[in-house]
Structures are given as structure tokens and as C-alpha cells.
Amino acid sequence: MLSKVVARISELEYKNGKYENAIPAFMRLAAISTTKKDLYTAWSGLMESHYLLAQYDSADKYANLIIEKGNINAGAVNKASLYLGKTAMARGDYETAKDEFLNTLNSAQDEYGAEAKYLMAEIFYLNKEHARCYETLVGLNRDFSAYTEWVGKSFLLLVDNYIAQGETFQARGTLKSLIDNFPLQHIKDKATEKMKQMDEADRRSEAETKSDTVDNR
Q: Angle, nearest 10°, between helix axes 94-107 and 74-90?
């Protein structure tokens, strides 16, 4: 069946990071699709490919199409809502992004909800709203504990949030816990790298303090 062949080509181009090639392939799939599944595959692929190419208006177009045809499936609508938030965030429109992430969270108790919660926390962190960032990350770990990837990322962001407030003891404690106990190796590796960066910053600070002491003699 032609649609299966085109769908396979589209997905291979996407997985190989060739988004410029994936877009016309997904557009062809949308044109020839005869099932909701194929149509959603095409629209979702177009939404994600345009997003990854920083073509946010086009990504929004397909996200809105998916939402308007909301009878595809609940996960499809949740993902589209998340991407409307991600495009707004990428443009620096944090208020719109937060509204879209809240829309996602109101209906999504899945991986898209977990990502929406994480990105809400990231916006609070970027806006230096550290208490709200902390509360949101605690909520993510409570409500989306099954999504280990996002739990791990949330702890890494929590470390950054602690450091931004000068709470290095809490930051180090969180990193040590991740390094010793977290089940995903790439999260452990990032925690190890952050710990090295903190150690290096401490060494520089000590060297500068010693230098200032010598200069003042």
C-alpha cells in the first residue's frame, strides 16, 4: 500500500534528522492518507519537523489542525497542545507558553503532561521565580513519578535552581543522590558533570580569595 511506503520513508527521514526531507514526505502522506492514523502521523511529523527547524508558525498550523480534529486520539491532542506551548516558549512568549502548558496539564497525565510540567518549571527558573520553580518540580516528581526521564531532568533543574539561590549544600546533596541512586545512566552522567563544574567553581573562588589576600598584604 502506497501510504505505508510513504509513511515509512517520512519516518526514516525524520529519525535521521533530515527534517527538510521529512517535510515533503509527510506532506505527501497527508495528501494520500485514507485513515485517521496516517493523517495524524503526517500532521504530527510536520508539526515536529517544522518545530525542530525553528519554523514555529508552520508547527503551530499543524498543531492546531490536530486539535481541531480532536477525535483522532487523546494523546494526539495532548501532544499538539504541548507543541503550541513549546513554540511560544521558543519565541520568548512565556505567558502564552504557560497557558498552553496548563492546557496540556489539564488533560494530560502522560509523558506530554510531564514535559509540560517540566517546561513550566523551566520558565519559572528563567524568570528567577525560584520558589515557583521549586514547587512545580516537586509537583512533577509527585504527579509524574512514572516518567523517569522527566523526573531525572527535574532533579537536574532543581540543582540549577538551588545554585541560582546560593544554596550549594542542597545542590550538592541532590547531585550526590542522583549519582549514587538514579536509574538512568545519562542523568547520572549529567549530574557528575554538574558536580565537576561546582568543584571547579569552588577551586576558582578559593584561588581568587587567596590572590586577594596576598594583594592586600
A: 160
Closest C-alpha among 24, 22, 26 to residue 3: 26
1-108 is classed CATH 2.120.10.30: no
Predicted structure pTM score: 0.89
Q: What is the pLDDT of residues 182-206, one digit of tens each?
A: 999 999 999 999 999 999 988 887 7
Higher pLDDT, 35 or 28: 28
